[in-house]
Amino acid sequence: MNLLTEVKNRATAPTPPFFQMVKKAGLIIAAIGTAVLTAPGSIPVMLLTYAGYAVTAGTVLVTISQLTVDDGAFEKLLKK
Question: How far apart are CA 61 and CA 28, in angstroms?
């Protein structure tokens, strides 16, 4: 199977409930980091550094959670 096709199938397959919660947490973390990075005014350098890490961590959580699928649902999707 082509790698891009498999990634596309995994991205569109149903996500297990636990990873749906992880995905929401990742979105919140990334949103907070983005809000701090784009805030007007002078922000301490250390806070900007941590905000950059938060955006990265949130993005990784969302990506991993989106590509995690329920095995039964994924097999049914592939049989179609």
Answer: 10
Say which residue the tokens 């991205």 belong to.
Answer: 11
| Sign of the torsion angle spanned by Cα atoms 29, 13, 74, 2 | negative
| 3-24 per-position pLDDT tens digit | 888 888 888 888 899 999 999 9
Q: Which residues, 6 or more positions from 25, have their beta carbon under 8 angstroms from its beta carbon?
A: 61
Q: What is the pTM (predicted TM-score) of this model?
A: 0.80
Give the tokens for residue 58: 């949130």
Q: Which single residue is written with the structure tokens 């990784």?
A: 60
Residue 38 to residue 51: CA distance in whole angstroms: 10
Distance CA 42, CA 58 (A): 24
